[in-house]
Amino acid sequence: MNKIILLTTTALIAFGASLPAFADNATISQSNETNGYANQHQAGTVDGVFLDDNATIVQAGGSGDVATQEQGRLNYVFPTFFDAEVGGVETITQTNNANAVAHQQMNANFDTQSITQTGTVGGSSAAQTINTPLGGSNTQTITQSLDNNSAVSQAVGPAPGNMATEASNSQTATQNGQTNSSIHQTVDGTSSNNTQIATQNATGANNTQLASIINGNNNYIEQFQDSGDVSSTQEVSNAASSNDRALQYQSTGVVGGTQLITQTGGMTNQAGQGQGNSGNFASISQSSGSGNIAIQNQGLEPGNAGFMFNNGGVVVHN
Fold first, then answer.
1. DSSP of 263-309, one letter per residue?
2. Is residue 17 part of a domain?
3. Domain range spanning residue 237?
């Protein structure tokens, strides 16, 4: 009889541990403030339990506003993986602000981070970090419009001791009509099936796009700078990676552009570069591999847009 009671108790405890937690929802709105500050923190739980927490900050018409969000950021470390935020959502919207700052940080998997800064002036900054040893199926999105001297940073996996495994994550950053602005995207640790997309639309100058994936497999990177851009740079680094594909294109009318792709220590990597107009510089370096493909076209043409190609072995654009 005692054995039966013990087994029953154990089963109940195991069942209880698998029950879903209830989602938390937090919202902060600030308008027409000077040096406004908004901070949200939502604690996590054991990895594998969906929390679906939702944090939202809206700041409008202010000056010097700062917004920060954290979900599950206490002690998500091997081997316990406690304080994880699974299925969490962080959203920051800053409109018509001067010198706006936004920062988001969280743990775990199936998380979404979104920052939108529109009508801001004075140089905005937006940073997103998913800081976890085991990160998968996370989405990071940042959009900035018409604010010169601005910066975007997206990072997945800067975990303690670099023992990260990152898979199927998506990073998308867009800057519209800006000059002297930058986009920096990083996926750290052992990575696979990740996507990094950087776009700088409309006429700009002295803009920078940087993308880095280390120790990866089947990752995709695309960088685009629009027509009329002057003296801007695109740079991609894939280290110890295989089956990665990196495409860069600077549209027609781009002058003095620079494109750099470095792929080392892997096999069957692909790199493509397309540039319009004149006075541009393009460089692809692939080493210590086999079956790699590299394509460059300057002055674009055949159908323009991003031109490049191959298609049978992939690479592509247009």
1. EES-SS-EEEEEE-SSS-EEEEEEES-SS-EEEEEES--TT-TT---
2. no
3. 23-298
* 3: enclosing H helix or E strand: helix 2-17
> What are the CA-CA distances from residue 292 to residues 190, 235, 245, 265, 270 (Å)?
20, 18, 10, 11, 6
What is the token pair recorded at 177? 């009509």
For residues 5 and 165, what is the distance between their CA atoms, to the nearest angstrom? 41
Give a yes or no: residue 8 inside a domain. no
Residue 317 resides in a domain: no
Residue 74 above 60 pLDDT?
A: no
Per-residue pLDDT tens for 181-225? Answer: 999 999 887 778 999 999 998 877 899 999 998 887 899 999 999
pLDDT of 7 reads: 29
Pairing of strands 270-275, 245-250: parallel
Structural domains in the chain (count): 1
pLDDT at 130: 85
Please give the model's pTM, rounded to 2 decimal places. Answer: 0.88
Domain assignment present for 58: yes
